[in-house]
Amino acid sequence: MTAVHDVPQTEAEWLKARLKGLGASEASAVIGCNPYMSNTDLWKIKTGRKIAPDISSNAHVAYGHAAEGPIRELFALDYPEYEVRYGGAYDMVHNPDYPWLFATLDGRLVERKTGRKGILEIKTTEILRSMQKEKWRDKIPDNYFCQVIHQLLATSWDFAILHAQLKRVWDGEIRTERRTYKIERSDVLEDLDYLLDAEIRFWTQYVEKDVEPPLLLPEF
């Protein structure tokens, strides 16, 4: 199965394309583990009942966008075993069997020794509370893990790497650390099946039929 590549030329085209399907950052809302958006909020956006909030002016979001390029370059320097490719800010990949299932990628990887294809997902997080720190303790936070699983569904590639920069301001001093998590497709087959089933049900039974889904809330 070969993923379908699509690159909108402008942000307006990209935003319009996003309304026609489910992107990786929205996948966690489908199964009720997104701390910022419920599945019913997502349904309202996809059915035109609600406009997606514009978070581009949020300071943390703006920092993340600005930092993505330098972090990708640092990753390429630190992990020369991967060829790092970047298709641009609107680099969209669609699942060929379910064209409404897509992902916009931070980077594409090729494992030099094997030729295997992978996904690079970059995260920047400022640790403001102890709860945020706990979510990163020895694992990927659930909503980000779900995002990576969705990207594997969209691309059908062999692996994904989530590369995160965690930032803290301590007594006026900025401290950062980077963490790298590799997810092999073969290790998450059950998660892939679970999320695919949930997304098919959400899109075909609720969005396409214009029926509001039962509310799912994240666990705290």
Features:
3-stranded antiparallel beta sheet; alpha+beta; Lambda Exonuclease, Chain A; 220 residues
At a glance:
The protein has 220 residues and is α+β, with helices and mostly antiparallel strands. Helix content is 36%, strand content 24%. Helix 6 packs across helix 7 (189-207).
Topology:
Elements lengths: L3 E3 L4 H8 L8 H4 L8 H8 L12 H20 L3 E4 L6 E3 L7 E3 L2 E5 L5 E10 L3 H6 L6 H14 L3 E12 L2 E12 L4 H19 L13
Parallel strand pairs: 6-7
Antiparallel strand pairs: 1-3, 2-5, 3-4, 5-6, 7-8
Helix pairs in contact: 6-7
Helical coverage, percent range = 25-40%
Rounded to the nearest angstrom, the distance between the terminal CA atoms is: 37 Å
Low-confidence stretches: none
Shape: globular
Instruction: Please describe the biggest sheet, giving its number of strands, its sense, and whether it closes into a barrel.
Output: 5 strands, mixed
Number of helices: 7
CATH 2nd-level architecture: Alpha-Beta Complex
Number of domains: 1
Q: Order of strands across the biggest sheet?
A: 2-5-6-7-8
